[in-house]
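Thanks for the sequence, V.! I ran histidine kinase right away. Repeating your input here for the record:
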Amino acid sequence: MKNEFSKLKRKIILQITLILLLTIIVGYFIYFALIDGVLQAPFANMFINFCEKVLQLDFYTAQNIYSSIFQLNKPLWLAIGFILLLLVIFYLALSRFTRYFNKISEGVDRLTEESEAEIQLPAELDFMEKKLNTVKSKLEKRAMDAKEAEQRKNDLVVYLAHDIKTPLTSVIGYLSLLDEASDMPMEQKEKYLKITLEKATRLEHLINEFFDITRFNLQSILLEKETINLNYMLMQMADEFYPLLAPNGKQAIVEVEEDLKIDADANKLARVFNNILKNAIAYSYENSIIEISGTRKNEQAIITFTNKGKIIPPQKLDMIFEKFYRLDTSRATQTGGAGLGLAIAKEIVHAHGGSISAESIDEKTVFTVTIPIHS
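Predicted structure:
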């Protein structure tokens, strides 16, 4: 901060020095010219003439008044002259200084303007100009991100509302058939019941996504920490996901350092890992292996999920942790949810004081979660 204000301080000091020099020069000029210099005689004659003509005094009386007022009080008049002159010049200088505050105030006002033009300030305030422009850029980006997120949320609500109709119509249709056709063969009944259950499960999933959309904005993340054995947690999670892995020949292999334990909220951290693994399963190739690893480094637990699949484009990679963003924007996709899984995972990891990131290179996508071992 000292370096940033140095240019402005130098200019202010220079201006104050010039004001003082100007005051001294002008003051001494008046003193030596009017009171005790080349202009003394004309000034004295003018004062005496004024006394004679206006005040109706005689010459000697006027001369005595001039002498007693001016000649005998030269230091007093010099001091009064200096003070008045200094006040006038100081006022003019202060007006110049307040210009800086006016410019800064104008710059702050322009922060809220929807304009692409950059804020411009005097050269000596270039550091403030850079800061204001940086703040302006961040505010514009946040506003744009919020607008895009709101638009994505609105689109998803519309899509989900539309998609709910399809399984709901199927459930009602098949149940109506089962109710109306009491003599329906048992094999056909089982088929219809299976389809109805699948549609009802899909309907439940969509309704849960609606709740997630609301909870994401209204619920604060409160942690209930306990000691967690990451090896056990990740192994158990891989086993639970076997029904999703097996149909497409996929596997989840877990390699975690022995006795790797951390202090964290088990339920919320499990949700983080579940969301990442779901994403890896949804976007990995058939008959591929998803590698889950856990290591310890500098009092941090580093957990990675590596899957082989299509490369995620850089522009999408930067947005996958934003709420309501889906890699697959198709409404009909069974892999795309409300776009909240990774966004919620990010919030939970940050609440633990950790970080989450992703990279996608050479048909490999790696999600990395870093969590402090002790908190």
